[in-house]
Amino acid sequence: MTHFKLHLKILNLQFIKFIKYKIMFGDISGMMHTFKEAQQKVEETKQRLNSVLVDETSADNKIKVTLTANLEVKDISIDTSLLSDAEELEDYLIITLNKVIAKAFKINNDEVAAAAKKGMPNLPGMDMFR
């Protein structure tokens, strides 16, 4: 059995024990409330990320792209010297867009994960995956 599978098996057993404990003591409504709060925090974070702007410029500053952290394009600025060569413009756009999308995606992922984690119950064994 691999190390990862062993951790998963331990995590599953700990989760089952946790659920049985919560059921035995009638705290299901408390858990549901906690999960709803976590879901609400995630939604609030997603809304907030609409106002977080992420910029990227090409190496020679001929293209600048601005996205929200929710990956919505807000602005693209193109130096006029690129307008005469469509192939060069396409290359610049692809490189710059890929960079800014990666940045925005990471911010989005980190923020949403942090919001979800704050609202989740403290499950035993979850520290092993940090």
CATH superfamily: Nucleoid-associated protein YbaB-like domain
- The helix count comes to 3
Percent of residues in beta strands: 5-15%
Number of domains: 1
Ranges where pLDDT stays below 50 over 5 or more residues in a row are 126-130
Rg result = 22 Å
Strand order of the largest sheet: 1-2-3
Name the helicity range.
Answer: 55-70%
Helix/strand order, N-terminal first: HHEEEH
User: What fold name stands as the CATH topology?
Assistant: Ybab, Chain: A
Distance between the termini: 21 Å
Give me the secondary-structure category: alpha+beta
> How many beta-strand elements?
3
CATH C-level: Alpha Beta
Kindly state the mean pLDDT as a whole number? 80
Please specify the SSE layout and strand pairing.
Blueprint: H1 3-24, H2 28-49, E1 53-57, E2 63-68, E3 73-78, H3 86-119
Quick summary of this structure?
The chain has 130 residues and is α+β, with helices and mostly antiparallel strands.
Describe it.
Strand 1 and strand 2 (63-68) form a beta hairpin. A three-stranded antiparallel sheet has the order 1-2-3, covered by helices on one side. The chain is α+β, with helices and mostly antiparallel strands. It is elongated, with a radius of gyration of 22 Å. The model is unreliable at 126-130 (pLDDT under 50). The chain has helices at residues 3-24, 28-49, 86-119, and strands spanning 53-57, 63-68, 73-78. Helix 2 (28-49) runs antiparallel to helix 3. The chain has one domain (1-130): Ybab, Chain: A (2-Layer Sandwich), CATH 3.30.1310.10. The chain has three helices and three strands; from the N terminus they run ααβββα.
